[in-house]
Design brief:
The chain folds into 2 domains: 115 residues; 260 residues, no CATH class. The protein is 16% helix and 40% strand. The chain is built from 2 helices and 31 strands. It has a 24-stranded parallel beta sheet that branches. Strands 1-2-3-4-31 form a 5-stranded antiparallel beta sheet.
Length: 428
């Protein structure tokens, strides 16, 4: 009896030990599974946070490309998926820091450079939420599209009767500066920077007086006939002038333009715009319609811009109109008076179109047109104040062109993608 009881007691001890061991193993397995699950969450949240941070940098770049107001400084948090992010954008040219390590803070080499820092947090329920930081340095491309009276990327042809000179709107009106008699043309001349240029040839085949330089592209020349006078240099450029494309990228949710008290997809009637950003399918103004601009207005136009039959664009006070044009043609004709402010810098047109740009027909145009992929024609007893760039420039009829030297002093950037100089994840 005693031996049997001893054996039973020993078996019970063995069973209890096995239960304890198995329980321990179960606890260990559960802990290990929990640890693995937690590790998986951390890995996934790491990846998510990084993707959210990169998306935040991309969004900031898109806003810089659009010249969005108020982009500098810290903004957020913004929700994206199941994560969130905050961005800080710094302009090297105004931050008081020697970012490039040369010539001290805010020097000319730091102009058009921005640092974007995005901090993102995943939100998948990890015990310790994971943060990631991505830093990008981007550079807007300096813009030289308005550095001369006329520029044709492929070629310039001056036919008919063409006269170019310059003035400086910062010093007053053109009429007040056109006081220099010139016996050759028989009319007073203002200043002598009415330059024309091309990355290809320049053909002067009409009665031409250019009070400035005529600068053809590398390996090309300016062809001068008997009635052509270039009152400046005709030496070709040693290098081509960069003419970047315009990227048409209207912001999401852009409201339609007010149209004679209502809103419509196409602007066809007189309107007053006091400021803001708008979008329309086309602009078709005629029959003495008036578009009045009293504030800072940005207008995205998907299709044609047709301004005919004595239409008027009236820019008053501190008004400024910037037009981004997607496709279709631009025609400004029929006795129209485009921009009555007298200052070309208050009307800027950036066009991505490959269709034609035509300005003329007894009209007056004060402003700047940059359409590097469009064949552009200036014609018909028209007076221009400002600057025009096209894929090609062709003048016919009587064209008087007065370049505003104030445009050359503007710190403009290419209306398109930034150049990404660096992109890195910051280890935290």
């Amino acid at each position: 009896m005693t031996d049997g009881r001893n054996q039973q007691g020993s078996a019970l001890v063995v069973v209890l030990v096995m239960v304890v061991v198995l329980s321990g193993l179960s606890v260990l397995a559960i802990a290990n599974a929990f640890q693995k699950n937690t590790s998986t969450e951390v890995v996934v949240e790491n990846s998510q946070s990084l993707h959210v941070a990169e998306a935040g940098v991309d969004r900031a770049i898109a806003e810089i490309n659009r010249n969005a107001a108020g982009i500098l400084g810290t903004h957020g948090p913004f929700n994206l998926g199941s994560g969130s992010y905050t961005t800080t954008v710094t302009d090297w040219f105004t931050d008081g820091v020697d970012n490039d390590g040369a010539n001290g803070p805010d020097d000319a080499g730091e102009q058009f450079h921005y640092t974007i820092l995005c901090t993102a947090t995943g939100n998948l329920g990890a015990t310790d939420p994971v943060q990631k930081q991505v830093e990008a340095i981007v550079r807007r491309q300096p813009f030289t599209g308005f550095a001369r009276a006329m520029f044709g990327k492929d070629q310039v042809t001056l036919g008919g009767t063409v006269f170019t000179d310059s003035y400086d709107s910062a010093l007053g009106t053109y009429a007040a500066q056109a006081v220099n008699p010139d016996p050759h043309v028989g009319v007073p001349v203002a200043r002598y920077k009415g330059d024309i240029g091309s990355n290809g040839p320049i053909g002067d085949v009409g009665t031409v007086d250019v009070f400035g330089n005529s600068t053809a592209g590398p390996g090309f020349s300016t062809t001068i006939t008997s009635n052509c006078y270039i009152h400046g240099s005709t030496a070709p450029s040693p290098v081509p002038i960069p003419m970047p494309d315009v990227v048409y990228d209207p912001p999401a949710g852009c409201p339609p333009v007010p149209n004679n008290g209502t809103t419509a997809s196409t602007l066809t009637n007189s309107a007053i715009l006091n400021g803001g950003t708008y979008r329309c399918a086309a602009v078709r103004l005629a029959n003495h319609q008036v578009l009045q601009i009293t504030g800072n207005v940005t207008l995205y136009v998907d299709g044609d811009i047709l301004v005919t039959a004595k239409e008027e664009v009236r820019i008053t006070g501190s008004g400024k109109l910037t037009i981004y044009h997607g496709s279709g043609s631009i025609h400004i004709t029929g006795g129209s008076n485009t921009n009555t402010s007298g200052k070309p810098e208050t009307l800027m047109v950036y066009s991505a179109t490959t269709d034609s740009v035509n300005a003329g027909g007894n009209s007056t145009f004060t402003g700047c047109i940059y359409a590097p992929n469009s064949p552009t024609q200036l014609e018909g007893n028209t007076e221009y104040f400002g600057s025009v760039t096209g894929k090609s420039i062709k003048c016919q009829g009587t064209v008087d062109f007065h370049y505003d030297e104030a445009l050359g002093r503007m710190n403009l950037v290419v209306p398109g993608p930034c150049e990404v100089r660096s992109w890195r994840e910051i280890t935290r």
